[in-house]
Amino acid sequence: MAIWNDTLDLMKRKAEVSDSCLVAYSGGKDSLVVMDLCMKAFKNVVPFFMYFVPDLECVDKQLAYCKEKWGKDVLMYPHWLLYRCHKQGIYCDEHFSKDEMPEPSLLDIYSWVRAETGISFLATGAKKSDSIWRRRCYFSSTKSWDWAFYPCQEWNKFDVLAYLDVNKIPIPDSSGKSATGIDLSTPSLLWLHDKHPADFQRLLNWFPFAEAVVKRRQFYGIQ
Predict the structure, then answer these.
(1) Among residues 203, 156, 151, 159, which one has the least CA distance to residue 178?
(2) Does domain 2-174 have CATH number 3.40.50.620?
(3) d(CA 53, CA 182)
């Protein structure tokens, strides 16, 4: 109960400062909760999505749900890791022509969205319980970002599932990771290959060597 009261207090304080808010929307469980909370607290909510590979049907389905549920179109921006993976030749050709490719940070993408929309406050679904990496990334390196806030930072997955259930928001299809999204990790790639083969083929257009994880499973079993 204390966690819920703290979340309500945070939302109220932010809404008193501004009636507008950006939401980092992935279509995953946490971002659905944050989107719903912000829609209840702010007059103007603008969701945006950072794509790793564009035009994936499994992702478009969750973006469409945002329009269906809250009447909001989701703005599209490239994921900050997309540049790094191409530049460093992760599951794709490494070439000197990519040396001049920019390598933006998460802050750079957030600054881009804030500048284009003119909205300062930005909410994400990051939780301290997600992982050590996310705990360090969001709750250590971003302490100086007074414009970013995390409504679910003290929640656990059971709090998230309970909120979705009470508010009749369907649990999304996902790879089962604590942080939902499409990336080049082995669990994500295998999930995409098994559950959404057409989308996996689209991913291979960007990262043609990602099929190696599927071959490795065929040769050696689950890794």
Answers:
(1) 156
(2) yes
(3) 8
